[in-house]
Recover the amino acids of this structure.
């Protein structure tokens, strides 16, 4: 059984790494340890390499985003839940792209493959809710939707953020029309 202080240290390290890498994708392990308030030994015991830390930050982000779906669907109409969730996904994709330089090609491929299934499952749940309430077209496909989000993170990274407008167009294309 893992001690509660070890779990807290891991969570602090992940939060500190997310912040540090968002500010500067070249942030060092020592900078992350300082920001997390832990010693280098604690950091390296949890994450033996910078790449394992970056991968853990990615995985933590995917888990956070995919776990948000039931709450969003419980609080919002399905199309609005999809819009809000997609906005979070685009932000995470933008961050992931910014950290891509810190990963080897193999690690980048691994995280993409690792996150694909949970993200597609989350999109499926959101689209199915909209299909069930009649607001989203029956032919809406989770894979197609994920492909379209790729354009959104590129738009969000440009000097003029066109992502909200583009997302509105995508969502309009998903709506059922009488």
């Amino acid at each position: 059984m893992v001690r509660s202080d070890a779990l807290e240290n891991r969570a602090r390290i992940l939060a500190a790494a997310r912040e540090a890498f968002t500010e500067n994708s070249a942030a060092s392990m020592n900078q992350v340890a300082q920001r997390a308030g832990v010693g280098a030994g604690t950091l390296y015991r949890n994450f033996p390499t910078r790449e394992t830390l970056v991968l853990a930050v990615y995985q933590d982000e995917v888990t956070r985003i995919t776990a948000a779906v039931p709450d969003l669907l419980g609080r919002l109409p399905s199309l609005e839940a999809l819009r809000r969730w997609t906005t979070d996904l685009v932000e995470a994709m933008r961050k992931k792209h910014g950290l891509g330089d810190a990963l080897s090609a193999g690690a980048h491929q691994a995280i993409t493959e690792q996150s694909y299934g949970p993200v597609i499952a989350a999109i499926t749940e959101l689209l199915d809710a909209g299909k069930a309430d009649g607001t989203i077209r029956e032919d809406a496909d989770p894979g197609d939707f994920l492909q379209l989000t790729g354009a959104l993170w590129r738009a969000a990274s440009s000097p003029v953020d066109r992502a909200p407008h583009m997302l509105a167009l995508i969502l309009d294309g998903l709506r059922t029309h009488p």
User: Anything to note?
Assistant: Residues 50-174 form a domain with the Tetracycline Repressor; domain 2 fold (CATH 1.10.357.10). The chain has two domains: 1-48, 50-174. The chain has a mean pLDDT of 88.
